Amino acid sequence: MSGSAPILETRGLTRFFGPVRVTGDVDFTLHPGERRAIIGPNGAGKTTFVNLLSGRLAPSSGQVFLGGENVTAMSEARRIKLGLGRTFQITSLFPNLSVRKNVFLAVAEHEGVAWNLFRSAASHRRQFDRVDELLDRVGLSDVAEVPAQDLPYGRQRLLEIAVTLALRPRVLLLDEPAAGIPTSESHIILSILDTLPKDIAVLLIDHDMDLVFRFAQRITVLVQGSVMVEGTPAEIAANERVRKIYLGESDHAAA
Amino acid sequence: MTAVVTILFFGVAYGMILYLISVGLSVTMGLMGFVNLAHGVFAMLGGYAAVTLMNQLGLSLFAALPLACAMVTVVGFVLERTLYSRLYGRSELDQVLFSMGLILISMALVRVVWGPLAQPVQLPDYLKGQSVVGGIELPTYRFVLVAFGTAVIVALWVIFERTLFGARIRAAVDNRGMAQAIGIDTGRLFAVTFGLGTGLAALGGALGADVLAIAPNYPLHYIVYFMVVVAVGGLGSIRGPFIAALSIGLADTACKYLLPEMGSVFIFAFVFALLLWRPNGITGKR
Amino acid sequence: MTDRSNAAVLVLPQAGTVGARKILPMLLWVAALAIPTFAPGYTPLASQIVVMILFALSLDLLVGFTGIVTLGHAALFGAGAYTAGIMALRLTNDPLITALSGMAVAALVGLVTGSCMLRTKGLAFLVLSLAAAFMLHELANMATSVTGGDDGLQGVSFAPLLGVFEFDFRGQTAFYYSLACLFAAFLLVRRVVNSPFGWSLRGIRENDGRMRAIGCPIYRRRLAAYVISSALAGLAGALQAQITQFVALRSLSLELSGDVLIMLILGGAGRLYGAFVGVPLFMFAQDLLAKEDPANWYLGQGVILLVMTLFVPGGVLGLVERVRRSLGRGGRR
Fold first, then answer.
1. pLDDT in tens, B176-204
2. Distance, first Cα to last Cα, chain B
3. Best residue in C11, C12, C214 to probe A by mutation, most A CBs within 10 Å?
4. Which of B218, C43, C213, C270 could share a disulfide with B44, CB 3.0–4.6 Å?
5. Which of B39, B183, B51 is CA-nearest to residue B117?
6. What angle do helix axes B223-233 and B265-277 make, rounded to 10 degrees?
7. What are the structural domain ranges in chain A?
8. How far apart are CA B100 and CA C27, in angstroms?
9. DSSP code of C163?
């Protein structure tokens, strides 16, 4: 990759659940603007890894650096403030609130107006302009006033991305953004990912190989919590061990 | 010395009653995730049923207890199937409100049937009075209470740890989805467990009628104690509430004996601190 | 926590109903002003209702808007009531000073207990809220020399309001005074729930995990809501002491915590006007049913709760909303 300093880095990241090592000694670097994917068979510890990065889980040992700063001991909230955004594997929205309000909540937190007690939310024009711009980017302007729970599932995933983008992340962790979306429609996700600002580093975790291989510049293969191999999509596709362990597994799962 | 023995004895008897009443609540809350404030209602019903069977129908204590227990088990089973099961998965607020409603309705009905005053237990002569043990006078009935309570608790633990039924409950507490996946009929399991839990509460209420007075405000008056035992003991556990109930029984008795002025404030201050330290109770995950 | 009972209020009102929504509440406020003139016999009862509405409104901020279910809200009401009562007997009996002190003390109690309790949720929080209120109740019960114990604080009298308006035996001053306080509190709460802060409280109620993931300091946000709610509950308690010239031990009891919760739910939580509908309904039902036998009233409350949770989630206002919506839908077709 480029010679720039990594935006996200882990050193010897390890996590045990009881006696089981779900993440083992992972050294991982992500550079500004990089498009990276993590793949691995079921139970490879992909979501655990994302949770360790985002601060939802604390590692048993090892460190996480964000923009060169050691964030290992920092809360999820602090990491978000430092530019680490994530979406969830299972859709996590405010179901009864309108699409616009969903995004507004994130904008308000990010721009520091969420402690305003006495000014009406509706009068925060600047923030709403940003909300509308984000909705426009993910193509949800037409349903801005619809409660999030009334959106079809695929569009909820888009809203999820809009909410996360509202935080102006420098690193974006996407945990299975296409989960539950028919493969035929995953290109919508891809086209939105294409419109992301070029300086955001994106880490994608997904089962959809088509999506992963079209999106990523580099791919990291996680097996049993450890990095097995890392390389360009072409290298990964040609790797014998990956074919055997990962692709064999997914053939099996599909059968 | 006398004071220590007296406190220990009364405290253990009290703790056992609290345990019998609360253990069912712990298991059902762990199993179904249902915030059931109305569990004390079943203890009260057990108390009323036993007292009526003894005082009105002249049954002996040892006939009245299992009968009262069986009757309330049926009531609990039916209520679970008809009402409680409709509120699984609803918000905590809805469950709190619903069980508050059950408390109020039960208080009204009991008041209409038995009147507003506490129901005295008329014990047979051989259980009245005091027994002298090691030079200390202690009420005879409490010995029966402790012995009977111990027998029930041992039986309960054997069922929970050694039988298939117990294993099913433990499996479902740990992971409901998995339990369903391996073919456990969780709906029926819930109903049976709920029924048994209420039956145990009834037994505790009946057995402890001279410790916790049987009156219409029973489910409201003692609710703090039952909830505290479950919260401190940890959800879904049958050992945690035992430790919690005994500790609270002993501490409460000691406080009332040594510091009658301060009442129960100390205990609740302690519970407060404990729950801040371990929100999921002494057996729960931190 | 997803709570469908609150769904309705979060959807924008349909055009055409906005007018009715604004005019009807205004009419109600004006009608309330006329009570001492046209129904002087009911003025004391009306004052009671106003105070309880204020108390229920404070609870709505927690239960309805933030999703905090507490069983010990009376602790804060009682803190305000005892503060006002004890101050009147020992320091000053100026109504405004004692009311503000009641608010301040309740806010402080809320800050202290809340900063502990809000670290937990679910069962632990419920039990802590019970235990905190229980402790205050026991302390007030024991400190007889200060609180009057079980007999309550009797003979608490207050100086004329602003040095001018005496608390008359017909209760007119008391009524206008408490109505003014309620109106001010209502404006405040409405402001707060429509602010970005208030929206974030709804966000926490809907999905606290997601709020955390967008960088919201949930604990501090919930604590702030808790303290505001505590201050308002304390104000309600202080008003209660002032207009009845008495502080009962009941003002700290579990029964009161339960009553106010039922009042709010009856009207509809998370709707701002739920307290205004629920409290009068509750008090009238109580008057009707408790007259002959308290058992009737227990039964009444129990049935209300069961019906509310099983069939009418969202309270009376939720029901009105749904009926109107289905009518509107029918009319358009």
1. 777 777 777 778 888 888 888 899 999 99
2. 38
3. C214
4. B218
5. B51
6. 30
7. 1-83+169-255, 92-168
8. 35
9. T
CA distance A132 to B130: 80
Say if residues B64 and B54 touch (Cβ distance below 8 Å): yes
Which residues, in sequence order, are CB contacts of B62 under 8 Å at separation 6+? none
pLDDT of residue A222: 87
Neighbours of A245 (CB within 10 A): 18
CB A94 within 8 A of CB A102: yes
Distance in Å, alpha carbon of C209 to nearest chain B alpha carbon: 16
Residue-wise pLDDT tens digits, B12-58? 889 999 998 998 888 888 888 888 899 999 999 999 999 999 888 88
Q: In whole angstroms, what is the distance from residue A209 CA to residue C285 CA?
A: 64
Q: How far is B281 from chain C (nearest CA, A)?
A: 8
pLDDT greater than 70 at residue C14: no
How high is the pLDDT of residue A248?
56
Q: Is C202 on the interface with A (CB under 8 A)?
A: yes
Query: Rounded to an integer, what distance in angstroms lies between the CA atom of residue C208 and that of residue C200?
Result: 10
Chains that touch C (3 or more CB pairs under 8 A): A, B
d(CA C262, CA B87): 18
Cα distance between residue C81 and residue C99, in whole Å: 9
Topology (CATH level 3) of domain A1-83+169-255: Rossmann fold (3.40.50)
Domain ranges of chain C: 35-254
State whether residue A40 is helix, strand or coil: coil
Is there a contact between B153 and B249 (Cβ–Cβ < 8 Å)? no
DSSP letter at A11? E
And the tokens for C128?
Answer: 């802590």
Prediction ipTM score = 0.84
